[in-house]
Design goal:
Layout: H1 2-31, H2 51-58, H3 75-80, H4 82-85, H5 90-93, H6 119-127, H7 129-135, H8 144-148, H9 168-176, H10 179-184
Length: 198
Amino acid sequence: MEMESNKAAGIISRYLQLLILASAFFFFAVRLPAQTPAPVPAQSTTAATTNDDCFACHGDKDFQSESGRKLYVNPEVFAKSIHGKNSVECVMCHTELAGVTDFPHKSKLKQVDCSACHQDAADVYDKGIHGKDRVAGNKDVASCADCHGAHDILPASDPESRINPINVTQICERCHTDPDMVKRYNMKDPAFIMVYEF
């Protein structure tokens, strides 16, 4: 009888935790500033490097670095992405390559700084647990590309988007249900993800 009582208390405790997490999510979601699409940066008149220059190498399915890392970017997928549809040039994100005319370029590039165009979203990220952990030096914490993608970013309203509400739990689960990550960072029970599942 006592075992059943403890089991029932555990189930009730878990549901209360989920209820609290769901309430907190909705409270903060309502209070976050509305995100407006980032303005499309003006085309650089000094950038001699075009997307065609980039796709000359990166459009080859077999293209890879000396260490074997795949560097292929599907031109058709990029063209259908939010950046491709808004005529964003590769060098607008990979700024250190603007004006480069000698190819192949250096192999190690700086991480893309999405806040150059998406400052509102970066401010929200910086105030959250992922942003705070990144500032503290945690290299495993989710970055913009980990959740949104890189060359294949779609609007959140698109059912194929990684961050569409239908898909967002799959993104969270990649880290929050990974046994090594959960153990390494002493993550709490990943049951909170169930709040987002449909």
